[in-house]
Design a protein that fits this description.
With 383 residues, this protein is α/β, with parallel strands linked by helices. It contains 13 helices and 15 strands. Helix content is 43%, strand content 15%. The longest helix is centred in the middle third of the chain and has 34 residues.
């Protein structure tokens, strides 16, 4: 059997049609800032990509800043708060991506106050809990659209409405949402939004930050005048062309992709009963159609992941074992999941091209491996 890749929340394969769109740009010469024909053609390709991303998100192209990664885009927004205000307060959900949590911690080191709002055990952050943290000196609220580990969708529009009433801007990290659920910026009412191509079948090295017209911004990278002086550095033309092409595919095909992924995800979760002793995280709230994070009670998920890898299945765990100590992920910690359950949790993330029988194959392998690991654990306990 060919290896089965079920780790699409980590990164997605490059879609062949995206690669085909990128090829001319990979072969061409030309710095998009140059005024000669080579440069102009490169710049035109970048502007086409900007139009494609803008069309997908429902925003004006000039409000988009291209970056090299979602992490960079998130860092740029939090860094802006320090540049513009020097101090104050920010509110983040406690299970944001590390690129937001670490950037918030850096603000804290610089004298900001940071409120970390824990999600409810269901996996959803309560808008009232965020609203309850807002202060007169709150500079920013950060809430992701979809959590990367458990897939739970967050009430971003409601939070944005509450924040706007207090004049507080909102950053929405939509990196994990694009390509899985519709993302229409005008419906969200946020001020900053980030996306990254490699999560929706585009290339690595291309991402975008949308900044509402008039919202404050201070560049993370300074130097050249690229991106209307909002992000210095020679534009990565082939990668940005790929970002645009991937965005156009999402715009045209998302519905079918989502249906396929949800079918596999649902078949997978329906089959868990036969294994027994399982619990799906965030099962009771709206989730991404492709993500299933499951605790296999009494099983070490790291060991399970390795065994599945040997059988050709790529899945992931949120908890990393560093030097023999299991580090529980921020997401699991924020959810208040106990350590044993967190260490037993495995993330399966399906993709638009996952084989129709992927769920069935994975379930068959899991039945054997989970049983083997439970037997080993029981034997260890008897010794
Ligand atoms: C929710 C979320 N935000 C941001 C990122 C960071 O994106 P990048 O890998 O492009 O830096 C990720 C990547 O895993 C993510 O899942």
């Amino acid at each position: 059997m060919d290896p089965v890749y079920l780790d699409h929340n980590a990164t997605t394969p490059l879609e062949p049609r995206v690669l085909a769109a990128m090829m001319p740009a990979l072969e061409a010469t030309g710095n998009a800032s140059s005024v000669h024909g080579f440069g102009r053609r490169a710049a035109e390709a970048v502007e086409t990509a900007r139009d494609q991303v803008a069309a997908l998100l429902g925003v004006r192209p000039r409000e988009l800043v291209f970056t090299a990664s979602g992490s960079e885009a998130n860092n740029a927004v939090l860094g802006t708060m320090s540049e513009l205000h020097g101090g104050g307060h920010v509110v983040v959900s406690a299970f944001e991506h590390p690129s937001i949590l670490a950037a918030a911690a850096r603000l804290e080191e610089r004298g900001f106050a940071v409120s970390r709002v824990r999600p409810e055990p269901t996996g959803r952050v309560s808008p009232a809990a965020i609203a309850g943290e807002l202060r007169d000196d709150t500079r920013l609220v950060c809430l992701m659209l979809a959590n990367n580990e458990i897939g739970a969708l967050q009430p971003v529009a409601e939070v944005a409405e509450l924040a706007r009433a207090r004049g507080v801007p909102v950053l929405c990290d939509a990196v994990q949402a694009v390509g899985k659920v519709p993302v229409a910026v005008p419906d969200l009412g946020v001020d900053y939004l980030t996306v990254g191509a490699h999560k929706f079948y585009g290339p690595l090295g291309a991402a975008a930050l949308w900044i509402r017209g008039g919202a404050g911004f201070s560049p993370l990278l300074v130097g050249g005048s690229q991106e209307r002086r909002r992000r210095a550095g020679t534009l990565n033309v082939p990668a940005l062309v790929g970002l645009g092409a991937a965005a156009a595919l999402v715009a045209a095909e998302l519905e079918g992709w989502a249906r396929h992924m949800a079918r596999l995800r649902d078949a997978f979760e329906a089959g868990l009963g036969a294994i027994g002793g399982t619990a799906v995280h965030a099962a009771a709230v709206p989730r991404l159609p492709n993500t299933s994070n499951v605790a296999f009670h009494g099983v070490d998920a790291e060991a399970l992941m390795v065994r599945l890898d040997l059988r050709g299945f790529a899945v992931s765990t949120g908890s990393a074992c560093a030097s023999g100590v299991v580090e529980v992920s921020e997401t699991m910690r924020a959810l208040g999941v106990d350590e044993e359950v967190a260490a037993a949790s495995l993330r399966v993330s399906f993709g638009k091209d996952s084989p129709e029988r992927a769920a069935e194959w994975l379930l068959a392998a899991l039945r054997e491996e989970v049983e083997a690991l439970r037997e080993l654990a029981a034997a260890g306990a008897r010794r």
